[in-house]
Every structure is written in structure tokens, then in C-alpha cells.
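hey m, so remember when u said the C-alpha cells were messed up on ur end? i reran from scratch. heres the input so u can diff it against urs
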Amino acid sequence: MKEAFYKANPSWFALTESIEDVYIDYRLEMVYLPMGDISFADSLVAFNPGEEAGNTPKEALGPSQGQDPRKVEYVNLGLDGSIVVFFEDNAITDINGLDIYVFELGQIEPTRLSISKDGQNWIDVGQIEGGTAGLDIAEFVKPGETFNYLKLKDLKTYSGIPGADIDAVAAIGGALRLNLDSAVLFETGKADLKPEGLEAIKELSEQLVSIPKGTI
């Protein structure tokens, strides 16, 4: 699994060996995520419950690692329901192979996926269903583009529990996101760096130096 990922992506680097991990979904499928827990969506932006929706939407933000299905925390979208999640410390980007993995409870219900840079303008990147929980976005995006928003929309398929049951969503490869707060760097209306701004830039530069290779 790990070997296959690096064979397809020879230029990929691991931040540290302690970060990467293998996750187990409800169907006991193993998924290798080189960025570990950083890979998962960080916050809920919107939840539009469909017919017969259930559970709390925030429960779609972390994997349950193959737990007893009676104990798994997930959100049921309901028929035709949708959810939008935000990736804060990383972003979705195209790598060789699958780019997005949806941890779903039970049968994989037909679910439409869309991605966005700003949460307003969306790119439809296809759907998951049946035995497929991963998606490759290569044909829909330009090389190097990054996206921080992901939308899942149930396609109104009836089953034992109506609607897709989302446990978590992960960017398999993804891009690491590093931030500098302008409020830390400058006083309002000023162009001179504040002392704490210089310190923040120093810390960021140390982070960049620790990364062996990559595109900024």
C-alpha cells in the first residue's frame, strides 16, 4: 500500500514517519494517508439535511477506524442531502492515483463530490458508489491547483438507511498549508514589520527549511 503510493508518486516526501498512517474504514479496507491525521477535513461549513437525515453533522470530521458499527460516529445526509467541509491545515490537490477518500458507513451510496477554492465556485469531480470510495480529480483540475472546500451530495438512492452515511473525508496526498496572519505582521495602515511579525516569519522559514522538497 505505502510502496504503491510512492511508486506512483516518486517525488512525494513524508514530513515525518510518525505522521503517516494506515486507516481502516467500515468495510475493513485499509487506506494509506502519507499526511496522517492532517489529511482529514477540519471543520463543517454547511449541512443541508435531506429526507430522513440523522446524526450530528460534525461527526463527519474524523475516521472511526473500523469500529463496531454500533459505535461509529457518522452523519447521515438523508435523501438528496448535502454537507460542505473545510480543509484548514492542508488542501486537496491532484497526485498520481486517487486524491480523495470518503469513509462511508455500510453500502457506498451514490454521492456526488464537488471541490472549491472559495466555497462559492464549485467544480463537479464525479461520484462515488458501490464498491468505490476513492476519487481521482486529475481530469477536472490544473496541475498544482489546491482546493480547501469539499461538498458531498446524496443522489437520492433508497436503501436500508436512506441517504449516504459519512464517517470522514480525507485528501490522500494533498498540500500542506502554512499561514501568516497579517495582523501579526503589521500594524493597521503600516508597512513596517512588527517584532512579532519578524519572529513569525522566522518560524515559518524554519518550517520551510525542514521540508526537503516541494512546490510553494
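this time it looks ok to me. The chain has a mean pLDDT of 79. if urs says something different then somethings off w ur setup not the seq
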